[in-house]
Amino acid sequence: MPKTLADIKKSLDLHLGKRLILKANGGRKKTVERAGILRETYHSVFVIELDQDEHAFERVSYSYADILTEAVEITVYEGTEEELVVR
């Protein structure tokens, strides 16, 4: 598991354009699960373009700190295999 924000960004940069599943803390003991494509990484945040048939929003963004604090978990799909990027 990456230990710094820079390591998390580098790890996500390797998976730009790939399909992923994102599990995020929705508050009050709720977990939100979203599917989409990792579109962009910026200095402090990354952007996921969501599947339109499943979600009301087109895009969501999260900070690398959300991954570091384990508020967000990402699973990247490559072909038929799953590769866990950050847990």
TrEMBL record:
One BP term from GO: regulation of DNA-templated transcription
Domain of life of the organism encoding this protein: Bacteria
Gene3D superfamilies the record matches: 2.30.30.100
Pfam families: VEG
Signal sequence annotation: none
Protein name listed in UniProt: Protein Veg
